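Narrative of activities, Objective 1.

The group set out to show that a structural description can be obtained from nothing but a protein's sequence at a throughput compatible with the screening campaign. Below is one input-output pair from the validation batch, recorded exactly as produced.
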Amino acid sequence: MRWNHLTEDTGTEGRPNTGPAALFGADSVVTRTFDTPEFRGITFHEVRARSIVNRVPGASRMPFEWTVNPYRGCSHACVYCFARKTHGYLDLDTGIGFDSQIVVKTNAPELLRRELGSRRWTGAHIAMGTNVDCYQRAEGRYRLMPGIVEALREHANPFSILTKGTLILRDLPLLRAAAEVTEVGISVSVGFTDTTLWRTVEPGTPSPAARLNVVRTLTDAGIGCGVLMAPVIPFLGDSPEQLRDTVRAVAEAGATSVTPLVLHLRPGAREWFTAWLGTHHPRLVARYERMYAGGSYAPTWYQRRITRQVHELAAEYGIGPSRAGGSRRIPTPERPAEPTRTGPTQLTLL
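Output recorded for this entry:
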């Protein structure tokens, strides 16, 4: 699927625009911009997707097989985001374009309801937020997640959500209703509590403190919430004091678990992060070149050191590593075995 050629295009609040648009596995793409402050500088490409449940590659390390992603691109603008490369598949820029050109699958709820009702669907766990954040700012306008959560609840289909967005609290009643009939796992991503680092490396996200308040609110509402401590950024967010401050804050928020994940730099993200590093921390460029000389991941010894430190701190503060499958477990109704569904391949978090 590519942005191969021009199609009908609409601009600010539906007015004509001369910018690019193209097919996205559908008959047309509508491109919009909005003048409101929260969306200034962002272009939305509204598409009608052909499918919404995506299969994770078999070689993935992730403990789930299926994902749902109602958006492509992300206004969180995290400089390290591994999903940047996916914008290149659409002939869109993986740098600033990833942050400001957001693809919106406007038919995601109705499409999911149809796919969950298929005789081929076996009721497997569905993960959301593993590619780009389903509760990024665009969700405040398009409101796709309420319909998605309702569809999953109607089919008693287990699911999990990973987010940096505070907007998830809008859907708290729906999440509680879903948790009454199926397994629901919620995790919030908080890699560090250093506000100076946050403002430059995750400029479009809610603050770490605001995200930890999400953890606290969900926990108080009876929905256990884990924290993915990601990413731990070498030489910038990995000092013993920083790790301790973050784990302490996670514990105080009432998280059920904390799981560290060291920064990984895939093609697409690597180039953008390196450019950011050269601007903000030029003295670290050579150190990063050495650390990531072997590929996208930091050396195993470094990952193990960070994991050990975080787990020791977690034990000290009374929390532990995450359990595969999410932070809340409710028995699910048995469903008859059916042929395995096939679908599009989805990139994964790891």
